[in-house]
Amino acid sequence: MAYRVEHDTMGEVRVPAERKWGAQTERSFENFKIGQRMPQEIIRAFAVLKKCAAKVNADLGKLDAKKADVIETVCDEILAGQWPDEFPLVVYQTGSGTQSNMNVNEVIAHIANEKLATEGNSLRIHPNDDVNSSQ
């Protein structure tokens, strides 16, 4: 299996290359392997939240309009049922749901960056600074 190296405040972590998530999701996936996966209804609720936040942040001038647009596009794809395998985390986490929130942030950012790259756009979407802004 091919891997890519992702970084977070705890350092490097290897993530399967075909996955759209990042370091924080991988750490949770490795450490919490009990119980059932987070229901897709929760993932869709996060997508609604992040789509609305991107729209409002753009309207307020806190987020570049192109970034907001691509974040909203990815959220619409999640709401349409695309990418279900990119949300592997279980319901039993640390209690606050931070890992699932970050899973959604990382997936949105990764897919958004792929879309921007195919357009030849040099903008980069950050999971916290852009997708999770003002939440």
Proportion in helices: 40-55%
What ranges have pLDDT less than 50 throughout 5 or more consecutive residues? Answer: none
| Helix and strand run | EEHHHHH
How many helix segments? 5
Shape: globular
Class by alpha and beta content: mainly alpha
| Average of per-residue pLDDT values | 93
* Lateral arrangement of strands in the main beta sheet: 1-2
Beta-strand share of residues? 5-15%
Tell me the distance between the termini: 35 Å
Number of strands: 2
Main sheet record? 2 strands, antiparallel
Structure characteristics:
single chain, mainly alpha, 2 strands, 52% helix
What topology does this entry show?
Elements: E1 3-8, E2 11-16, H1 23-31, H2 40-59, H3 65-79, H4 98-118, H5 127-131
Antiparallel strand pairs: 1-2
Please outline what is shown here.
With 135 residues, the protein is mainly α.
Report what the structure shows.
By secondary structure, the chain is mostly helical. The protein is 52% helix and 9% strand. The protein is built from 5 helices and 2 strands. It has helices at residues 23-31, 40-59, 65-79, 98-118, 127-131; strands at residues 3-8, 11-16. A two-stranded antiparallel ribbon has the order 1-2. A hairpin with a 2-residue loop joins β1 (3-8) and β2. α3 packs across α4 (98-118).
